[in-house]
Amino acid sequence: MTTITAVTAHDVRFPTSLSMDGSDAMNKDGDYSAAYVVIHTDDPALKGYGFTFTIGRGNDLCVEAARQRGIPLIGKDVELAVADLGGTYRELQSDSQLRWLGPEKGVVHLALAAVMNAMWDLAARQAGKPLWRLLCDMTPEQLVDAADMRYLSDALSRSEAIVLLSELAPTRGERITELEASGYPCYTTSAGWLGYSDEKLRRLLSEAVADGYRHLKLKVGANLDDDIRRCSIAREVIGWDATLMIDANQVWDVPEAIDWVRALSDFKPLWIEEPTSPDDVLGHAAVRRAVAPIGVASGEHGMNRVLFKQMFQAEAIDFCQLDSARLGSVNEILSVYFMAKKFGVPVCPHAGGVGLCELVQHLSIFDYVAVSGSLEGRVTEFVDHLHEHFVDPCVVRNGAYVLPSQPGYSAEMFDSTLQEFSFPAGSYWVETSGSSQPSWV
Amino acid sequence: MTTITAVTAHDVRFPTSLSMDGSDAMNKDGDYSAAYVVIHTDDPALKGYGFTFTIGRGNDLCVEAARQRGIPLIGKDVELAVADLGGTYRELQSDSQLRWLGPEKGVVHLALAAVMNAMWDLAARQAGKPLWRLLCDMTPEQLVDAADMRYLSDALSRSEAIVLLSELAPTRGERITELEASGYPCYTTSAGWLGYSDEKLRRLLSEAVADGYRHLKLKVGANLDDDIRRCSIAREVIGWDATLMIDANQVWDVPEAIDWVRALSDFKPLWIEEPTSPDDVLGHAAVRRAVAPIGVASGEHGMNRVLFKQMFQAEAIDFCQLDSARLGSVNEILSVYFMAKKFGVPVCPHAGGVGLCELVQHLSIFDYVAVSGSLEGRVTEFVDHLHEHFVDPCVVRNGAYVLPSQPGYSAEMFDSTLQEFSFPAGSYWVETSGSSQPSWV
Prior knowledge:
2 copies of one chain form a homodimer. With 441 residues, chain A is of the alpha/beta class. The first copy, chain A, has helices spanning 59-70, 78-83, 85-93, 96-99, 107-127, 131-136, 140-146, 158-168, 172-182, 198-210, 224-238, 254-263, 281-291, 305-313, 329-343, 356-371, 415-421, 427-432; strands at 4-13, 33-41, 47-54, 184-188, 215-219, 243-247, 271-273, 295-298, 319-320, 380-382, 396-397, 400-401.
């Protein structure tokens, strides 16, 4: 018997604000950060690693919340806990006092994601499989048992979900073979951050095209004239056969979103991402009706499965961009994938940040193999930052994620990274005296 | 010139779980708590007090978040800050790194509420007025400037809001005179907690009727047979002329909510409160269509103004129960009141907890005087717990809140309360060794 002996949480921050990586119309100076969780067992060779992603200040809140979330795991038998990941999730989630602080949103939900991401990593490591394969080896019933289906029965019942998964179950192997040959298609945002100069934008777009990307994304929304100029540069460089997406990061009210997107329609973007508040289901639906055939994409700030249920019911989005560290880990992500399948909305997960690419590759592979069975309209984000900190970093070739082969959820960071970038005591932060950070430390 | 010198945040917890006060189908053992904020100035006679409300574990997260939220206030000129409370709010709210952790929901938003509640208290004290009067003395333009109108323009524009407030402005004085005579009507939940025995329920309901209450509320949703028995007792005691409300605290999926409420329809409740996830706008709308003429009430977990906007747009609720410590203080509450007026939905604020009654009385009075101009369908919650800890506690007579007269937002607690119930170092918690609390401390 192997027992969970401790759950530790670590504040890891990278000074990305110095290079304007990740800058957009809402978030001008993020320091990409992780509230990083390690589940320790009495087997020195077996640990679980997970995290949630933040952009700096407040990462400490998620770390402390994750520490509290992890306490019920201590002393559990690993075999029993990983054999019932749905039950493990529900036990953590049902703490009514912590629930009050959301419910199911914000810091306590991000912390649940961090801890359960580590539990899923532990489960995959214990099984000796990458997470995507662990999921692909589960039966439809096992997947639905693991999923958080609460509050969803008016949109998708348990039996409907099983039927939907059963249709694809016999042919899962074929699609694995296919992805092993071709990888899972991705697009890049690395070129398009708002803080980059026109010259840097032009150079990075050229490089991305040379690297094989056919989908490229620009940040917009701060200034319309700038957006028109940057979109013109983008089309000059990538041509009209490649796909351009634009992303406003929630800066507009609904009427403003409609006017602004229409003013950029000549550049024929595939989608406008986060045109307004991520909570505004009816607002997204209104924007979608007004800007068609330009699609609407949202989800990186989608707080929980109930929001996504409504996005589907209201026909508010053309592309579902769920976030692997904001939803309550694989348990809640599963139910969003099931609903997306039923409502016919392609899932194109949000990535970037730190470590999100490492996670979402597993989810996208699983989706194609076991849920959607389709690559049409699907492309997963890739941003080429900070992968060097991961023991099993994602690999992208010819604009596609190569299937991960090591056991786990690819979430483990190097010890040296923790030593350097732990906040505020890591060597980087001690040496710079937190100079890129304001006075709140 | 008076300057803000410090913003301190305090973890205050009361062991209400010992008496099952506050027990409902979702929250079985809450310890009512406050993340309590004090804004200090260089004038020893001028401080601001505010808080957000939680039910125990995780209150420390809100305290730390409030400490971080308060930092930008330090060094500000009090006169300038209170003269532009809209600008002060937007400065705190626009911290993009903390925003990522919501956005505008969960722990960071609760913390914003706590800090800005203290700023509004400071503003009212500096003006020498109770908060309701400070608000009633503001012009329509000043009120709209203070309100958070972002993301709302598809439902209510700035100019519409000004027109709507201007209609009632000339007659504000008449309604103040009226309320000074009669108070603002309230209802009580004190009798109906789920953990109380039938005998205690019967006794408390009888006492409430004798105290003049005409509206009484029961918790439901754990067991249908129990609910039928408890509703029968309630109608026996209060008769059929008094108004009964029921509250499920989010325990049901949408189809279950519809079946369960229909099974209780013979008891003719005025409303079913929180029938399902508080995030589920479309779900509330579906329940409302199915259980009419029983009304649907929701809002105590309504995370922000964008949720309420959609509740109004989708005709999802009959009663808006905004929460004074969950929304981003008066700034965000104002915009919800404005929208409620436009959409014709009565606002019946959530209270109870610790200190919420003290806050919402100000809001309800302001609503009647300056926004709605009507008492029809309006009744504000009152729960008779923990008022003894407040320097200026609310006073209820004949089922109505008596108008507060002291300067401020009635949020100040006694120093002795802080000494006794600060967690974990207050004398109560030291003496009990935190025995009512689990092992996470």
